[in-house]
Amino acid sequence: MRYSLKQLAVFEEVANTRSVSKAAENLALTQSAASMALSQLEKLLGRPLFERQGKQMALTYWGAWLRPRAKQLLFDAQQIELGFYDQHIVSGEIHVAASQTAAEHLLPDLISMIDKDFPELRIQLSVSNAQKVIDRVRNYECELGIIEGRCDDSRVEQEVWCHDHLVIIASKYHPYAKLETVSLAQLEQAKWVLREQGAGTRKSFESAIHGVIDDLDVWREYEQIPVLRTLVMNGPYLSCLPYLDVVKHIERGELVALKVPELNMRRTLSFIWRADSIENPLRECIRREAIRMMKDRKMEM
């Protein structure tokens, strides 16, 4: 092969940072060495891989085509090196992005399982709302995402991991708290505090009320679930949150889950990854162990 792994590593880091100088710094190279490696790669392949957009480097069509293939070659090279140093077959670092509910209630147990059985697999975790997770997967910033609800982007593959459900909550002092059931009309008259636009919880809730509730009185929107819980406990508001995020507060009597028979509040938690990515054993290991964890939990229940 005429191109080198060093050239591909520079290409990948420039694509990641959108800057030759930052790529050089991250790879412990001089800027001139990084620029030369990238220039040589473009000359050997006969295509421009980047174009300048202001002070940043943007992938061309050919660069976007090359990126997942370059990432796979670099990953395979790392696995070969680790294998010949007698390290575990499943080893290396993978970046996982997850939405809040999965990150808080499911991933700690999953990471503990993986640390026990695959000590050389290191998981770098970032937490944000579902839309930002999708963006990170789509932009090659992580190899695996975990979101609530659906992703309709054709560039992203999706696989259901497990199910959960949302609940509408109120303070124990709220007038609706003593009602056996709450009507759609009563929900429309209430004051609401909700997750921000782009959050999986918000999308699932809006999907559930679509066509049955025309307008909600939304007073506040926040990313932080604890903020929403506290506002509901201390004020005249309703909110809609994942059951896992409020079950302890319901059991302690601090919050009340309202019964609204007309609404289907079930949803999915899913893995997502780029559709053009080649098989990654670290990603497959996490998915396999995550599915096994949920099967064990169902057996215990």
Automatic annotation (TrEMBL):
Residues 1-60 form the HTH lysR-type domain. Pfam families: HTH_1, LysR_substrate. Gene3D superfamilies: Periplasmic binding protein-like II, Winged helix-like DNA-binding domain superfamily/Winged helix DNA-binding domain. It comes from the Bacteria. The keyword Glycoprotein does not apply. Keywords: DNA-binding, Transcription, Transcription regulation. The keyword Transcription regulation applies. One of its GO terms (molecular function) is DNA-binding transcription factor activity. Belongs to the LysR transcriptional regulatory family. This is LysR family transcriptional regulator.
